[in-house]
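For consistency, the fold was encoded as tokens, as this record shows:
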Amino acid sequence: MKIWIDGRIVGPEEAHIPVTDHGLLYGDGVFEGIRVYGGKVFRLDRHLARLQFSASAIGLAIPGGIDRVRAVVHETAAAFGSHESYIRLLLTRGDGTIGVDPTRCPEPRLICICCDAELYDPEHLAQGLTLVTSSLRRPALDALDPRVKSLNYLNSVMAKREAKLRGADEGLLLNAAGLVAEATVANIFIHRKGALRTPPTCDGALEGITRETVIELAGGLGIPAHEQSLSRMDLLSADEIFLTGTGARIVPVRSFDSQDIGTEVPGPVTSKLMAAFDELVERI
């Protein structure tokens, strides 16, 4: 693992932030998860555009601007030296006094972490994940817009904990209206009646870059793909379900709320998309 912090690249034992950093105290900051394939950073411009959006949404200036962040990402990835890795880019409000007032933090802090990537157990990936509906709900858009990748992930943490305590791999979060939002750290797709369907951001889904990529790949394969509000019943009646995210890419789901999904894992559509994604990252 290599970490860029306060202008230098260090190992994890040397990377420190003050306890007065508002990212630690209040989750006041934003982040991006990015992948490196074949030594090249995957869709960096899209990730940086989303970082800029998230930072602007909470009134956080990016020190040095996007071009500096781009250089930091490349520098950290080069220092780690792996052809396949995961990058976590963080922007916190920075040091400040105790209290939530963000105007008392004079300078934001940029951190870039580059490490090996593994979010799910490989055996589970091969078998497909088990997914259960969480008792928690995704916060409403007027409370915290899901398009903002903030450092406050307690909602997802608690949903993940609940799923694990129930013996499942992942938790499904619904919104206050009972519609599907997303999994704890991933977007969700179903294949039903010949088309892919994924919840819109207005239902609580992140504007995922892997999600966007899958929709593009589906178009190239002639697979209809739509944003559509989904209920639990849509998932229970789906032919296939899979999750998408930067870390895990495309992950098949074998059961939802203890009911088996489809007749094979991964299903034929999921398999085609997984193969197309593999081909895409080999071409970058």
